[in-house]
Structure formats: structure tokens, C-alpha cells
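quick one, two chains, predict together pls
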Amino acid sequence: MTERELIAAAVAGEVTAQRMLYDQHVDRVYRLAFRLAGEDDLARDFTQETFIRAFQRLKDFRSDSSFGTWIHTIAMSVSLNGLRKVKRFRTREASLDDALTVSAAPRQAEPDLKERLRQAIDALPEGYRTVFVMHDVEGFTHEEIGAALGVQAGTSKAQLFRARAKLREALADFAGEWVS
Amino acid sequence: MSDDDRMDALLRQLATEEYNRPPDIVPREQMWDAIRQGMGNEQAPAEGGQMGTEDRDTRVLPLSRRVPRWVYYAVAAVLLLAVGIQVGRVMGPARGRPVAGVTPGGQNSLGPDSAGTLRNDRGADSQYVDGRTDDGTKGSRPRPRPSEPERQTDPNAVEGSSRAYTLVAAQHLIQVEALLTAFKGDLNQGRMDAQMASWGKELLSNTRLLLDSPVASDPVRRKLLQDLELVLVQIVQLSPGTTARDRDLIKGALTDDQVLTRIRTAIPAQKGT
């Protein structure tokens, strides 16, 4: 069954077709949601909401892009909006503009590189972090990222370039031993 | 390979292994059950062949997560507008004073075409204007009505009615401001929320209703509402395939006409009256 036939069946309300579409895409959607949220509960919520929205709007889906691209667009919208709401209630998160503050912290205070890396990524501005996670961590192409975020592939490349530069800056005190 | 490249590669590898690493097993079945329940199809049989009946951690999404927030805003705005208009109709126009925007002779004080120009362009939505009579029933409302005697009521009632309209207009402008601010934010980030058009459609209808209400008798407010109508029409017509140029045109209209600034200026001014 082609993807188009599968979508037509899912639009007609066939649960089997919906389940097949779900099985094809859920792993990647969940993994990305988890990478962005860092928590299983949130990742599940975002994934569920993504598929609910997708199935409810499936009749509006136009085949000028693949279903995978389309559902990742929804997933990114759901995840980023959800995270913004969550962050409002959580003060423990580092300010989005404080990426450089992390680099200024003395190394002795946070000797664990993994923890420093996590903090540095978390402290990236939202756009940089999203592109870094999608491209460098989850292996999306710039074209896929552009489609999912509604930006040009070139914009995605530029965001990734800046994200990497900020991370290098934030972890500069580790650079010597890494590259040697 | 430069030092930067080497460090990037190491960061990439470390991030892939360590940063928010998802579990190896995706909780497919639990999420699928929650999705089915969230879609209100819990009664669907196990057609997928993978839906068992074993005890699972099923997570029902609350209503607030299934219904987009803009729906609540839109319903609230429509209800508020309807109440305001109903209050205005019950209280009726002033005794001895012309209906706002209409001269005693039944002519629109802003000129014969000042409101008609836009109305004639509205197409299917024009039923909001022409499809109702004053008693709320559907039908053809003659406008203007030179032969009808002026309905005249107590001036205090008119003042109350005017306040109700003003309150409704202020609430409406707050909603529009929220939409335009969100829309502008999306524009700056180069994306567009699909819900924006639906939200805009509700507000467009309300804007048109207000244009036909006494609120629009104030020339400044009328101009603002007309500008809002044009901007909202453009937003409603946006689609995922819309070009960047179209979006830039809307952005230009927002900026050039200082729509947001004018709304923000109008809101406290109206609340204070």
C-alpha cells in the first residue's frame, strides 16, 4: 500500500491505516520530542498530541510533501510550544540568553564534561538548540529541518553554525585536551 | 581537519550519546492507546492488530490539551460581542438622537459609500450585515430606512448601550492585538501557525460586526477597524504555500499603518470612557 493510499484510508477513518502511519513515524517523532524535552512524560505528551492533531487534520494534508515531513512540522510546533509553556513554570532552567555565563563558570565548580555539555546545549537560544538537536544529534538534513521549522535550509545551516560556535565557546576550557 | 572541526565532531558524538538520550524502547502501545482515547475513538476495535487488552498505563489527554486554546478565546470573544450587541438592541437607539452613524433621515452620516464599499467586497460574509433584522430574525434588512419612524428611547439607556459597545470593542481589540502580536512573532521567525487563519477568521467576523455597530460612528475607531479588517483578510487568506512576499506585504501593512500601536492606544482610551 502506498503512502497516498494509506493516507486516504486513514482519512476515511480506518484505524488500521492510522496505526500503520503511526508505526512508521512514531519512533522518530518520539525520539526528537524526548531529545528536546529531556523527560519521558513530556515526550509522550508531545508525541500523542502530534498524532492526534495529525489524524484530525489529515484531510487537509496535501501530498506536495511527504507525510513524514508534515508530521515533523506538527511535532516541532507541538514540542516547542509545549516547552515554552513548561519553561514558564520552571525557574530552574537557565535563561536562554545565558549561554556565555556557562562558559564563564570556573571549571572546578562543574568538572563533569557531560553535565557541562548538557547545560551548554540547554542554554542555547531556542532556534540554535532546535537545529543542533535535529541535525547533529538526531541526523535530520537541513532540508528536513527547514521544512519542519518553516525556514530555508540555509537558515538552518546558519543556525547550526552559530550553535556549534556557542558550544565551542561554552566548553572552551575543555578544548585543549579534546583536540590534542 | 581544523581544531574547530575536531571539537565539533567530539561534541556531536558526546551529545548523541549523552544529551537527553531517549530510551531504547519507544512506548508505542501506551501512546497509541492514549491517542485513540484522545481522539474519542476508544470504542474502536483492535483493527491495528497490535492493540491488546492487557493492563496498560493509558493516559487520557485532558480537554484543554485536545481543544486548541484559540477556540476558547474565539468563543469568549463571540459571546462577549453577541451579548454587547444584544444589550444594544434591547436598549435601542436614543430618543430624539440619531442612531450612531445614521442621520435622522436614515442616511449614513459617513456618506453613502463609506461603509458600503467594504461591505460590497465581502462576498459570502455579508450575511453578518444583511441577513438579520433588528429583532434577531433572519431576513432582508432594509438599509437605510427613510420611511420608518425613528425609534426613540431614554438617553440614559443610550449611554448604557454605548458603554456596552465600547466595552465589547475594547475586548475585541485586545483579542486582535494578541493575534497580530503572535502573527508578527511568527513572521519574524519565518514560520506560520496554521491556527492563525482560523483565529483570524473569527476576529474578522467580529470586526465586521463592529463596523456595522455604533462603535464605528467614531471616525478614528472606524478607520482603525477598517484597517484591521484589511489586515485580517490578508491573514485569513494565508496558507502554507503563501510566498514570503505576501507575508512581507502584511508585515508592511502592520508597520506602515502602525496598526498595533493604534490598537494599544485605543484600548486604554476606550476602557476609560
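Residues 57 and 167 of chain A are 38 Å apart (CA to CA).
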